[in-house]
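Can't paste images in this forum, so I'm doing it all in text. The chain is below; anyone willing to post the predicted structure tokens underneath?
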Amino acid sequence: MIYRITISIYGKDFDPDALLKELKGDFIVETKIRKGAKKEYIDGNFEFSYLDLFHSKIRSTNDYIGRHEESIVNLVIDNYPIFIKYGVNEIDLFYDIYYQGFQCNFEILDSVMIKKLSRLKKIKISFPISVYKVTKREMSSWSRDIEKEWGW
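Text version of the structure:
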């Protein structure tokens, strides 16, 4: 399997620009929307700000998912005071799962990491998941790329 985890950060009074100036960790900014920005495809403006981040190594395989999740959990824990300071109300650790075959079984974080996140009482944390079936060729190609990226 291949995993991609997006850290989505939300808040009605959230200031993503100020947060990014202080945010610690190894991440890539994917999307940044400020409250009041015009929506692209429907009428209206955003009623909240949000920020999507990726770990610097965007995808992982079963061989690296433990390290990947640990890095993401540590980023959330290490930046918790900054999240509170800049008005974050909610964080989604959004999993995109890509698999090849007939059945798709996986674990979202282990009990140790869940326990660490459960201590963060002032922010709602959710784990939405999307699952995609891919071809053997796509799986092989992506797996090789990930091995180069995460390889020892």
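The mean pLDDT is 91. Residues 73 and 127 are 12 Å apart (CA to CA).
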